[in-house]
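Researcher: If convenient, please comment on what follows.
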Amino acid sequence: MSNNSRRSCSRSKQMSAGSWMVLSLFLLLCTGRPALAWSQVRLDIAAAPEGLLWASGLLAEKLSIPLGNLGARPAASEGPGSLLQVSWPAAADWGGVQDRLGQLEPGTLGTEGFALVRSGEDYLIVGNTPIGAMYGVVELLQRLGDGRPPSARQAAEIQTPRLRIRGEAQSLPFWLGTTMYAGNWSGYGKQENTADWYWFDKAYWRRLFRRLAMGRENALLYWHPHPFAAFVSLPAYPAANYFPPSLQVAYQRQFHWILRTGLEYGVHIYLLTWNICVLPRFAEAHPDVQEFGSDTPMVRKYTAYAVKRLFNEFPELGFATMAAETPPGCVDFVLKALVAPLNSLKRKPRFIFWTWCTYPDEAKRVVDAYQGPSEVMHYLQYEQLFIDKVDPRVAKTAETTGREVVCIGGLGADTGWQYWCDLPFLHNLIADLPAKQSCGVFFQGLDSFEFLAARPLAHDALGKFLWRPEVPFDPSFWKTKLSRRYASQPLGENLWRAMCAGSGITPRFVQLVHSQTDHYVPQLGLPLVNFLEQPTLNTYVFENHDTVGRDGLLHPNMGLSWPNPDWGRELQGVKAYVDAAKTGRRSKGETPLEVAADLQHRADTTAKALRVCTENLKTGHVQKVEEARAICNLLNMNVWLGRYYAAKIRAAVAWEMWRRRIAPERNRKGCLAALDRSLAAWRELCRWNRRLHLGTFGFWRSEVNVEPPWNHWDIWRGYVLTKGNFCTQLPFFERERGLVAGQLAGAPETARLPLWRDLAPPPRIVRVVAACEFEHGLPDFLVPGPEALVQAVKRPGTVISGKYSLLLETRGNPKNWTLLASFNARRLPLQRGRHYRLEFDYGVLATGAPENRLGVGAHSSAGWQHDIGTNRFIKLRKGARGHWFIDFTPKKFDDYQVFWSIEKGGAVVLDAVRLLETAPPVTGKPPAKRGAGGAPW
């Protein structure tokens, strides 16, 4: 409110100075009646938990009045005598408060509900528990902050949450030596052996709990394969103890404080574990035990001991687990080693069973066997947000298990990379939870890369939507909130427009070019072939399975139980759209060109709004300038990503039209023009990459090096962990443009789009390590596999080049994988740190199963888990011929040897085999400096 308004109010009414006068004017304007004027926030301070005391203190500070303990009313000289009173049944003043509640029964508020009650000139905030009262104080705080004080006419307002679990999920920041997911937790190893890090920072935890309390979020879930040794000693199993005794005691003491303090802010903490899993040092101490998958009597006994010891020590802790992934479906282990010891506890924790890798009837067995409170858990959407609805499989899970379902998910591998704050999308998603029989959600990712640009609006909205998802969405409220935050209505309006349009770019694209995995990061670009060969959200089936059985479930169950459901949207892929155009059929559902137009519109809308924001930020009349500028910077990346997607979709359509001889000359030119626009957009992405100092970072790149058509396994196996950034991707797309132009100059019938391996720059050859054309038989460094026929042959139709080629055959072998041949590691030693390329021609004579594979790579005696090499699998189709290469760099072992193996039998021929030592690959240089916090990924 302006100073002029304050002076005007002061002249018209003789009121005491202070912020309560501002509230009085607000109420007068809203109701036309004299407003309540409070002189004290009255609270039973002695009995109030930390969260309620903190929130009440904030409220008193907001109103510029004292936070008073129970006692006499303020003297008349201190101003009007009306009180803002906070109470609950255990408070000392409850008897007097209860007399003023009228028909309100506090028990109906549950543990978290509250009532805002006008009682004469006083105003009451009451809950059935201190947490409910705290949420009532938070509600009033937020209304005052948003300029929406309660009406003086309203006698009482009651709010209770619709969703029981409203929380967030993240990785537990301990390593504990686990090697799961290639050491995904190892980055925490440097901090965990000291007490000098944020886990011991009570101020950090209070900030976190207070942020959650302001959103009325009541749960935190931390995942780790085997977290027990972080918080309790395990004297019966000395090898399972990880920390020195003094540090173990410090972690135990701190975890007690964290759990206790969290509850004082209404926050319950859960640990999520994998099965079957032990710590590596425990496995090393027992020769018959491995880190993962050892279902032995001792591992069952140890796990039960660890579980019981943890929850005896921390009875307020919640527990989430799954019968997965090592091995998938280990239900009996979960029942005996986890559920049974939990059932023996006097105080049983809340138990959540995640259905990951478990069929619904097995999940029901687990939760039915548990004697305490329980839920099942399912993905909100698998690993990424692509539509504003909850996964339909959630409702199916609820029906088959007889339980409400808590969901897990949010900003995944794609959505979280760019700026995301699409509040209509978020509201629709959260509002769909009750309809899918969900009792809540552990949301992920709103804090991802927050050091680059904060998402204050999204955090606030998540809390409000989770609390009352049934409340209709009001865009004007959020626009006003943005305008107030930055003290600029034009900036607020345009930033809102940019956020909504720009945040939806990646989810919209993923609907058309879909992949159900956390490896999928289309923000780093995709080859043109992916735009034609990847499925839409209508046609994708989860990757880690072989078949869909007669029971309608995925087999084997390596993740989700049911195949892709009906998401309520129908999109045509590029090939289906062009096929319909060729045959004259009417297009069914949204077309790729409609998606491209939508992406272009979103990008243009965002860009237009950001131009206005940029001008607003130059005026000097804006608050939180740096925060707003950072948001605009990331949204500019969304703009160019949207334009890149739109152009490349159009290039894919034009290519397929040309290949099908539909207006060939027009589509040939159209394809190249669209590719040029996509490159121009990508160069702008690179400019923003440099401007934001993103450095280099690790990401999974889609390198499907299998000739189309692709299946789900081809896509899944094509993800390669690499290091780079937007700029290091540019040369690949520039080479792609040249290769596509070459194909467009030829005949459509023989044209093929380049695969990722075709886009790689040719290496500089340092030396030829070995070469063989097989014209003189087998070389002395080639060792046939023990169950393979390996010989040089010259049969007509078999030889690839010259007079002889090498036949490798296991026709009829029933094994899953058979070694065909390898290089002798002593004759051809491969040195650590050196870069190698193996290249060869191949032909397929026979296959032991439809589309089985030829494996190629470098192998160490340390085990197949350490096999290395790019492009490691060739899909075998009878009669196919081609050229192949793999690149690899030995790092851990000295006995690597090149090998070929075959899946489920067959016969192949090889020729022109060369093993080359190559120069180190040239990668783009990172910027000279990085932004605060270093590279984001």
Remarks:
- Residues 625-659 form the longest helix (35 residues).
- Residues 1-35, 75-79, 924-937 have pLDDT under 50 and may be disordered.
- The CA atoms of residues 667 and 688 lie 31 Å apart.
- The chain is about 35% helix and 20% strand.
